[in-house]
Every structure is written in structure tokens, then in C-alpha cells.
């Protein structure tokens, strides 16, 4: 048709003007060279929104795929269906969407054989935007079809730019607004403002600190991205924009001034020849309020990050100091353990090498006092006086030993044993005999029943100490004229030593705290004897070290308390 080759001129307002960037990119993919030439001729004066066309082309689907891969910013593709194969164009359309992931490009199918690809089936099965037979694409039809396609692409591109700008701002927030994210935020702001105003332009974002320092360029688009401030008067732009209080034009730039709550000043300058409309100015003003908050948040997060780094450094130093202090404490603790071990060794000497002999001295002094009564005067008086001195000194020594044991055991109760085969029945008999004179002083009956030998593995001094503590408690809490019974016998593979008395016995409160350190029983000593509250705790520790156990009866066979020590017998060979 003749109209296919008519030239037409666009209105003056729609012509591309010098100085604009490259126009709309149109790809023609067709195996007929005549189609390429006809399209270039028909569209040589095409312009929309002030931009002309940049035509690129390919003669096969394979070449077309590579062409579009190299030119992802192509706006529209005029695509033939039948090329190297009958459905080459359809396969390319599918590859554009799925392989290249290009959702923005507008695809217009042009075919000379409509029957090969029915329109309804193509629209349903393939993501294309228009379907035309070559015979119906006159110059006018081609103009209107491309105008609609380019406008559709432009709208989608602006939406995509908006998405990119928002993603950059969100990404800046996610990285806690450090120095680099502050610049990322600025770059996102420029893209976002361009998208909001629906203009494609060069732009720059500048920040000035509250202390009046030189303004700092944070981000740039277009020529400002490559050349920085590009010779603009930063201080002059700040002064002009701040005085206007709204978007203002200065030196060929539309300037937007924002002051944050912290006092920092931000200037956004866009290289556009058109003034902003009222709608655009209102939109930018609303966005500016959010922009000030975003930059203040960035600054606050930056200060928080610095404070956190300083705190971490202080914590690290303090941790190092504490580690050194802990090392010193551990060294002192090791020294204290050695000192404590030495103290316990001395304690053992006092408890076993002094206390028991002192008890013998007291017993013998009682015997000497009895013998003194048979002497004549003045020897009787002289001997009685000396025996009294001996007895008083022994009693004083006993009190000193008791106080020393209490003071030493106030910090730790660390008892060790040296094991060897011993006869527990013999230990019981010897220990009971040492206490007999004390029982006689209180007119108490002390009965001992020891079926020996009772061979056990243990420390004879420690076992004697445990038995002596039980016997001493029985003597202490049994009234004058009372009875104490000590029994040693075999019981189910164990040696059993039982100390029973006719004293007041134990109550529930006594039983609950019986073996605690420094615990005194509810009953009171019957002759004013002293008590450290450690005797039963020492007994429990010694029995535990001998893998034995203690059985307690609140009311034993004599009516008072009864304590039994069970120690495993040695196996007979």
C-alpha cells in the first residue's frame, strides 16, 4: 500500500531536541532486510516526550537473543515469528522473559503468515504485548503502536526505578547507617526523587555539618556521578535554597533544601530545565520530611556505633584486668590451700597428740587426789595443793585445745586418713578406758562390751578420735549417776560400734542438724562442760572416709541417744 512508504512529521513539541540523551531503544528482529530498511525509513522522524529513536537489529532469533542480552535497556522489540524456524520468534519471546528475565521490554510480534501462529493462542501462551500482521502495520499504525508501547515501557521503568530506590534506602537502614550506608542512602534518595518526579536527570546530594564545615558530596547521578560536584557553587546553592524554603531554581539546577533535627543541612540539586509543578513540589516536600528523619537516624546510628565500639574496647580492657586479677586470686588460692593443709596437719597433732594425753593426765590427777587423802598432815595438804595445780593446768590446757580446734576448723574441715589393717575392738577398749576416770567423777557407770578381734582397714588415730567424740558426748549429756554403754561386735560383714547413754535423748530438731558444723544439741551438758559443736561433724567425716555409715536412734536401749558406727570388715584370707 502506498501509505506504507509515506513520511510524516511529528509536531514540533514532540521532536527530539539537541543535547538530550540517546532516545528510545527499538530492536527490529526479522530475517527480511527489506523490513529493516522500511522500518528505519518509516520511523526516521519518530519522537515522543522529546526523545527520538535508537534502532538496533538482528536477522535471526539466535542473533536477536544475543543482541538483547547486550542491550538490556531496549524498550520495544518488533519481532518476526517465522525466521530460521516456523516458531523462532515465539521461542525468542519466551527466552526474553525466562532466560534474560526482562519483564520491562515490550514485545510486538509481526508476522506475514498469521495462520502459522493464531493470535489468540499466542496471547495466551506467550508473554507478548501486541500482535500485528505485517500487512496491517501502515506508517500510522506503526506510529500509534510504538507510541503506546514506549509509554507503557516508560511507566514500568519508572515503577522499577521507584522499587530500586526504595530497596537502596531499605538496604541502607539494614546496615545500621555506617559511613558507607550513609552514602548508599544518599544515592537511593536521588533515584527515588527522580522516580517521584517522573524525570530522568542528573543530580547531586550534598551534606553540610552543623559546625559549618565545607559541604560534602555524598552521592551523584549522571554527570555528577562521574565528575563529582562538576564545578557548582555548593555554598551559594545552600544559601539560595535555604532562603527560599521550597524547591527553587538556581544556576540551571532545581534545588531542594532540607534541615534535619540535629542541625545538619542537606541539598539535593537536579539538572532539569523545567521547573517543578505544584504537584511535584508538594510531593517532594512530603518526601523531604521523611528524608530529614532518615538522615538524622543515620547520624544517630553512627554515633551509637562509635559509642558501642568504645564500650567494647573498655569491656575488653576490663576483661583483661579481671583475667589478671583472677590469675592472682588463683595463685593466692593455691597458696591458701597449702597453708590450710599445713594448718590441718597441725590440727591433727593438737587433736590426737595433745587432747587424749591431757585426758589421761586429768584421770590420773583424780587418782592422785584420792590417794592423797590417805596421807598424814602436813604431806596431805602439800600433795593436795600440787595435784590441784596439775588438774587446773590440765583443764586449762583442754580448753585451749578445744578453742584451737574450733578456730582452725571454722574455715575448713579437711581430714585425711592413712589406711592399714587394725583391730577396731582393741581401739574401742583403749579409748573407753581413757574415759573411765571422767565417768567416775560424775558417778556414771561405763560398761564396755567388745567382741574381738574386729579387723578393718583404717586409720587407728582417726577411728579412736571418732569413738572418743561419741563417748565424750555421752559422758557430757548423761546426768550424774547415769549409765553409758559401749559395744563392739560383728553385724552382717561389718564391724559395729554402738555408744548408748541414759541421757535426755534427741528431738526432731537435733536429728535434722545433727552432723552440721558448729551445731549444738538441745540438751545441755550436765556438769557445765564446754562444747565446740564440731564433734559429730568430725565423726561423720571420719566414718565417710572409711566407707562406713552412722546409724542414730533418738531413744536407744538406755533411754537416751544411741550412735552406731558401721565399718566394713576385712575379708578373711
Automatic annotation (TrEMBL):
The keyword Iron does not apply. The keyword rRNA processing does not apply. Residues 301-328 form a coiled coil. It is an enzyme of class 2 (transferase). Residues 349-571 form the Histidine kinase domain. Transmembrane segments: none annotated. The modification 4-aspartylphosphate is found at residue 80. It catalyses: ATP + protein L-histidine = ADP + protein N-phospho-L-histidine. Keywords: Coiled coil, Phosphoprotein. It comes from the Bacteria. PROSITE patterns: HIS_KIN, RESPONSE_REGULATORY. One of its GO terms (molecular function) is phosphorelay sensor kinase activity. Its EC number is 2.7.13.3. InterPro entries: CheY-like_superfamily, DUF3369, HATPase_C_sf, HATPase_dom, His_kinase_dom, HisK_dim/P_dom, HisK_dim/P_sf, Sig_transdc_His_kin-like_C. Residues 25-149 form the Response regulatory domain. This is histidine kinase. It comes from Jiella pacifica. The lineage of its organism: Bacteria, Pseudomonadati, Pseudomonadota, Alphaproteobacteria, Hyphomicrobiales.
Amino acid at each position: 500500500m502506498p501509505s506504507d512508504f509515506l513520511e510524516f512529521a511529528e509536531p514540533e513539541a514532540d521532536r527530539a531536541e539537541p543535547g538530550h540523551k540517546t532516545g528510545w531503544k527499538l530492536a527490529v528482529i526479522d530475517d527480511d532486510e527489506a523490513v529493516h530498511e522500511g522500518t528505519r525509513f518509516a520511523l526516521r522522524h519518530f519522537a515522543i516526550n522529546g526523545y527520538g529513536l535508537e534502532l538496533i537489529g538482528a536477522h535471526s532469533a539466535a542473533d536477536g537473543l544475543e543482541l538483547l542480552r547486550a542491550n538490556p535497556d531496549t524498550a520495544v522489540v518488533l519481532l518476526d515469528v517465522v525466521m530460521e524456524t516456523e516458531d523462532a520468534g515465539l521461542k525468542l519471546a519466551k527466552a526474553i522473559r525466562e532466560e534474560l528475565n526482562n519483564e520491562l521490554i515490550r514485545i510486538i510480534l509481526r508476522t506475514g503468515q498469521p495462520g502459522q501462529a493464531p493470535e489468540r493462542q499466542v496471547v495466551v501462551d506467550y508473554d507478548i504485548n501486541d500482535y500485528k500482521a505485517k500487512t496491517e502495520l501502515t506508517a500510522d499504525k506503526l506510529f500509534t503502536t510504538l507510541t503506546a508501547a514506549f509509554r507503557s515501557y516508560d511507566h514500568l521503568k519508572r515503577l522499577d526505578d521507584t522499587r530500586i530506590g526504595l530497596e537502596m534506602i531499605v538496604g541502607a537502614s539494614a546496615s545500621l547507617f555506617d559511613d558507607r550506608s550513609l552514602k548508599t542512602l544518599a544515592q537511593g534518595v536521588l533515584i527515588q526523587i527522580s522516580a517521584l518526579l517522573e524525570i530522568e536527570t542528573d543530580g547531586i546530594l550534598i551534606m553540610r555539618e552543623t559546625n559549618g564545615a565545607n559541604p560534602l558530596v555524598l552521592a551523584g547521578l549522571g554527570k555528577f556521578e562521574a565528575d563529582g560536584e562538576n564545578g557548582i557553587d555548593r555554598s551559594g546553592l545552600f544559601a539560595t535554597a535555604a532562603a527560599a524554603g521550597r524547591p527553587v531554581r538556581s544556576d540551571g539546577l532545581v534545588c531542594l533544601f532540607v534541615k534535619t533535627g540535629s542541625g545538619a543541612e542537606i541539598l539535593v540539586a537536579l539538572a532539569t530545565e523545567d521547573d517543578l509543578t505544584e504537584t511535584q513540589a508538594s510531593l517532594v516536600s512530603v518526601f523531604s520530611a521523611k528524608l530529614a528523619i532518615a538522615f538524622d537516624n543515620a547520624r544517630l546510628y553512627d554515633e551509637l556505633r562509635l559509642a558501642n565500639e568504645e564500650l567494647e574496647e573498655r569491656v575488653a580492657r576490663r576483661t583483661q584486668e579481671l583475667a589478671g586479677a583472677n590469675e592472682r586470686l588463683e595463685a593466692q588460692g593455691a597458696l591458701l590451700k597449702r597453708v590450710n593443709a599445713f594448718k590441718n596437719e597441725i590440727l591433727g597433732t593438737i587433736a590426737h597428740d595433745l587432747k587424749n594425753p591431757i585426758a589421761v593426765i586429768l584421770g590420773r590427777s583424780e587418782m592422785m587426789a584420792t590417794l592423797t587423802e590417805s596421807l598424814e598432815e602436813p604431806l596431805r595438804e602439800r600433795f593436795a595443793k600440787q595435784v590441784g595445780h596439775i588438774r587446773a593446768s590440765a583443764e586449762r590446757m583442754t580448753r585451749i585445745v578445744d578453742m584451737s580446734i574450733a578456730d582452725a576448723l571454722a574455715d575448713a574441715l579437711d581430714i585425711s586418713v592413712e589406711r592399714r589393717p587394725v583391730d577396731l575392738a582393741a581401739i574401742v577398749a583403749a579409748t573407753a578406758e581413757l574415759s573411765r576416770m571422767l565417768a567416775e567423777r560424775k558417778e556414771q557407770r561405763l560398761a564396755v562390751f567388745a567382741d574381738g578381734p574386729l579387723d578393718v582397714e583404717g586409720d587407728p588415730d582417726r577411728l579412736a578420735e571418732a569413738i572418743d567424740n561419741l563417748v565424750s558426748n555421752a559422758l557430757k549429756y548423761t546426768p550424774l549417776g547415769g549409765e553409758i554403754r559401749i559395744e563392739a561386735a560383728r553385724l552382717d560383714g561389718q564391724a559395729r560400734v554402738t555408744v548408748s547413754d541414759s541421757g535426755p535423748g534427741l528431738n526432731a530438731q537435733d536429728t535434722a542438724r545433727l552432723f552440721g558444723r558448729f551445731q549444738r544439741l538441745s540438751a545441755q551438758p550436765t556438769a557445765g562442760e564446754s562444747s565446740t559443736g564440731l564433734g559429730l561433724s568430725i565423726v561423720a567425716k571420719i566414718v565417710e572416709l572409711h566407707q562406713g555409715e552412722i546409724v542414730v536412734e533418738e531413744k536407744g536401749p538406755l533411754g537416751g541417744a544411741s550412735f552406731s558406727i558401721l565399718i566394713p570388715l576385712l575379708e578373711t584370707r
